[in-house]
Amino acid sequence: MSARRSGRLLAAAQLTGSLGDGAFLTCSVLFFTRFAGLTPAQAGLGLTIGWAVGSVAGVPLGHLADRHGARGSAVLLALATGASVLTFLFVRSPLLFVLAACLYGSCQTGLAAVRQALLAALADPAQRTRIRARLQSAGNAGLAVGAGLGGLALTADTASAYLTVFVLDAAGFALTAALLGALPPIPSFPRTDGPSLAVLRDRPYALVTLLNAILLLRMPLLSVAIPLWIVERTAAPGWTVSALFVLNTVVVVLFQVRVAARPASIGTAARMVRRSGVLLLASCAAFALSAWGGSPWVAFAVLVAGALVQVLGEMLQSAGSWEIGFALAPADRQGQYQGFFGTGVSVARAVGPVLLTTVVVGWGWPGWLLLGALFAAAGWAMGPAVRWATASAAAPGPAAAPAPAVPR
After folding, report:
1. Model's pTM, two decimal places?
2. Is residue 406 part of a domain?
3. Among 58, 95, 312, 345, fewest CB within 10 Å belongs to which?
4. To 10 degrees, the CA torsion angle through 274, 275, 278, 284?
5. Among 95, 107, 111, 110, which Cα is nearest to 45's?
């Protein structure tokens, strides 16, 4: 099977899973609080615990994929994710909800890690980041359409409407499993030198992952902090929140692949991440300025400008970090390394909302500048961290992997 066809199958699998996820994420919390008997606090805590457990499970699940084959593991995890969605329909107590959330979070995180391992094995290294960008665009489009479907369920606000969304989400993951099963077989690595979970001892890779997690705070920035900021601190109309979501989605779908075509080496990728930190700092400054003055249209214009700068920084950070995460991982341990690198998403989802609402919404413009400085510092530090990681990979030893070019 050609690499192009494999890329199309991966993109189709990403699209089908994201369609259901978009609908599920839009209306699931309301189902939990209105029909499952949970309070908002119980639902929020349960989901936080679920994603925290999922972030830990990603590494061993990725390791199993390395040992037993990424394609078969991806199929099983896609089916398990669909089944975990259906378990929510039978939850009527906080304890059972936490258990279901842990299963859901673990399957989602493991599936994301194994998908990355599939991409690393099927695509030429020079094309991995570009194909990953196509997957991101397909995922964003699916989330947007799925959110619209979830909106229909919210409008109906009946148990049967929410049931339909959950079943469609599960069916989407069943179709995802079928598409992943059509990929060519991936060689497994049943034996390797060194410790089984080598990524847990790879301190340079851990630092790169930490810096990436800091930059990924941009995710709850758009979904949590900015909506609250617009409503509570600016004169912009309330529909600005939806406008910025649409703007972000459209720009990523149209331009992420073009941006991802730029990193030809890990050095270029590190420089892209550094620039993304500067752009995220500039966007934070624009968001802070949006609270000054009483004109709704001026506030709206400033927010749109900030969102455009933010999404450019987002695309640069995504493309650069994908290349770095792939290039620094040994070929026979892509599953566990991608599982570890993916913990940044779970950390941002778990910690970001509380942190950003406190710093940004609570502190105002000083909080925005502090957050922007944190983005810029993490982006700058990525270069030295990558140099350390490449030097460590090049050091002689039984577990050493071929070292990519050191960025300058």
Report:
1. 0.79
2. no
3. 95
4. -110
5. 95
